[in-house]
Amino acid sequence: MAEVLVNVLLERLATITLDKVGGEFKLVTGVEKEVKSLTRNLEAIQAVLEDAEQRQVTEATVRRWLSVLTEVSFDMDDVLDEWITEVLKQQMEKQEKQGENALIVTTKKKVCFPFLSSCFCFGQVNQLMLRHDIAVRIKDLNERIASIAKEKQDFSFQNITRVSELPERPKTTSLPNVKTFGRDEEKSLIASKLLSESSEGNEVPLIIPIVGMGGMGKTTLAQFVYNDEEVKSHFNKRIWVCVSDPFDEIKIAQAIIEEIDKDNSSKSSNVLQTLTQCIYKLIKGKKFLLVLDDVWSPNSDQWEELIKPLRYGATGSRVLVTTRKEEVATLMKATTTQMISLKALSDAFCLSLFYYSANMDENNVSKEYKDIGLKIVKRCNGLPLAAKTLGSLMRNKKKIHEWQAVLQSKTWELKEIQQDVFRPLLLSYHDLTPATKRCLLYCVTFPKDYVYDRNYLIELWMSQDYLNDKDNKEKIVVGQNYFDDLAMRSFFQDIEVDDENGNIKCKIHDIVHDFLQYLTKHECLILDFELDASERRDVSKDNIRHLTLVHATGNESLAHFLLNCKKLRTLMAIDSSKNSIGPLFELIVQLKCLRTLSLCGRWRESSLREIPETIGGLIHLRYLDLSDNNELEELPSSLGSLYNLQTLRLVECWNLKEIPETIGGLIHIRYLDLSKNNKLEKLPSALGSLYNLQTLRLVCCLRLKKVDVRGLINLRHLYVEECEKLELIKGIEQLTDMQRLDEFHVGDGDEENKLVDLKDLNQLQGSLDIRIRGNPNMAENAAAIMVNKAHLLQLRLVFPLDSDEGESREIMNGLEPHPSLESLSIDKYRGGAFSHWLLSLASLRMLSLETCTECGVLPPLGKLASLESLSISNLARVSKVGIEFLGIDDVQTSSSSIFISFPKLEQLHFFEMWSWEEWVGVENNNITIMPRLSYMTIHGCDKLKGLPDFLRKTPLRDLDIRSSFEC
């Protein structure tokens, strides 16, 4: 833990280069000497930290030495950050006085501070006092670090050189296929119990517990059976609920309703009777499978209330429970004949899992590696999680001496480790780079079973200065690399990728969470106010750096607790009452070391109404989340004093009417989210001063008419979806490095966006929705608007309702995409025929044609070699679908050469084709039509007389026909 802090300090000292100490960084005589001495001492300490980190587990004296170093490093970081912030403040004040809009010169790695003239107000008493105070604190802390550097000689530390660069890794793209080892017998047994129609004593539902110690693979086994195709088809309803500790019957009931019916309003109730009545109505007479994963300690009354409505399910209903405790199964009145006890895996199966996780072919491993691998696996004691973790560790170890080092590690001999599985986790942890370690440890600021959002996590890591990179990579990229490395090493699980935006969500295994808590027990604390006081972990308040409040309510003890946590760097509130946070705000703003403050208002009651001006005193703050506080109407003007702020989230602050001009003072801000503020009508002109802003989200700001992005020279991501009145994004044509733009409204007025504005934005990625209003001028300089956007994969074109055929065709011709486009949607196109470029999209996988009312003939889409999904809706003039649609012409029908129409098409959908009467194909042995078609839908085609014969030869699995065909 101390490693990253020391690295950060050295980077800050490098920022304050000695040639600048005499200028704006000048404090008092001798500061140059202090900076030199501090740098030397930290470099000496840095050289031995790798060895110290490993030895602290077994040597209490080393542990104490590192603890003192960590404490001093935190304090030094605060002082240096305060120093740099003061210089930034003075620069901004000077610019304001001179009426200049000069840009403070920055680089991606450090802030460059140009010298100021002698006229700068160094003579002011308060500045002199502050500078003197900082100088004195630096001198004092330097003396303490010098003492620590001297003490390190007493430990005979080894100078271990490690490769600090993170190797390039493939991006995490999908949830890996669930594969189990050595559990075939248990899988078959559980499946037979689920699929059997019989129940002991006609019990409904039948309770089937899976019992085993942590890390034994209970959840993986339950997931495997839950997703089995035969099991899926056997039950009317399947419900998965992660329970964990404490057992909260209200939350579990809410989760059951959510799984069965996401739109059911009863799920938001906190009244158990209301919830159980709803469950009763939803499952009565239905055969259901309910999985309660990770059940710890319900009492009999809680369980009896929850099981009552479940007894009205149909015969054959099942409740599958995973738990570490046999007494849980007894309390649930499960019979011993239904209980499945997971035992340790055999060495052979552990070895197979080990090699699978190491991405190695077990059959092709040399004897030398196999012998060492077997010895390593024997130390897993049959725990699948341990074997998986160690296998992931070996992925990058290609030399035999690296394998031997793992086998011979002293970590295996540790007596102090609380659980056996912690030893392999510790080995994998020590193999991480210092910065990646800190990123992993920070994850423990969230409670167990929390669903992590990768982007959100990266913003939090950034706020703690964990993402600095000597190669000047963008911090977001560095964070993505760290995340991928942790995922590859199996620290994350249940990884899911959003196909639309590529964002990733995941969880952390309970045992891994316990392990991280073990490593951070003096630094991170989660206070869950629904737990008994006896169950809460007691730590020294002076040492806490990261505090998370869960289910907090109005409480004097909480106020007293916060008063003693002066060194907090993170404060989060999760599922807490606003009555616990609002009155405490005056205390919160006294926590001067805060880097991260998340008071997201998903309150049990109403939200925060006011943010005090004193928040401007949190000069170290990098991350501020006030989202979902829907009674918040304005922000304090002191917000602009948060010079170090990098992320500001104000999502769904419904009543926020105005953003103060002082926002321009947030010169370090990189991420600004104002989404769903439907009373916000304009943005401040000072927005253009946010030179470092990389991401701006304005989704669903329904009243916003104009956005000025001039000056946002580093803006890369702009999200404006459902900003229905947004007519002008001024200056967007200058942002040629823009990577993400989700929606772009085009008009024909002077104060509206023009299509030509998109011409040079050739770095756009992902998806873009172009909505055309009016009849924009397609001048010659608008040629090739889209064709050079090779990274854009999804495009939607929405045409104006009042355009004529010629205008629509001209617009369409000018919007030819790059051939690499994968998904295209065309809506309300008024042309009689589609542009020629449609057939040039060789990579197109998905195509949707909707409400193209003037089109009487479908284009020859059968020629699109990569097309997998096709949807055609409301083409009112199409009366016949013939061979031209299949891409077949007269030459091909008479030719002896083989032709495949729609070679990859799997899904075909027709909706509301009111004039469609005839669908014909062709009989020719040399022509194959739709050889992969699996799913077809025909809705609202009531004049259609029949289906073509070629459909008989397709591998259709699902045919859905409604409101179609003449009777």
TrEMBL record:
Keywords, alphabetical: ATP-binding, Coiled coil, Hydrolase, Leucine-rich repeat, Nucleotide-binding, Plant defense, Repeat
InterPro entries assigned: Apaf_helical, Leu-rich_rpt, LRR_dom_sf, LRR_R13L1-DRL21, LRR_R13L4/SHOC2-like, NB-ARC, P-loop_NTPase, RX-like_CC
Coiled coil feature spans: 28-55
GO terms of molecular function: ADP binding; ATP binding; hydrolase activity
One Pfam family, short name: WHD_DRP
Limits of the Disease resistance protein winged helix domain: 446-515
SUPFAM superfamilies named in the record: L domain-like, P-loop containing nucleoside triphosphate hydrolases
Domain Disease resistance R13L4/SHOC-2-like LRR: 567-666
A Gene Ontology BP annotation from the UniProt entry: response to other organism
Superkingdom of the source species: Eukaryota
Disease resistance N-terminal domain ranges (all copies): 6-96
Record-annotated NB-ARC domain positions: 191-361
R13L1/DRL21-like LRR repeat region domain: residues covered: 756-874
Record-given protein name: Putative P-loop containing nucleoside triphosphate hydrolase, leucine-rich repeat domain, L
UniProt source species: Rosa chinensis
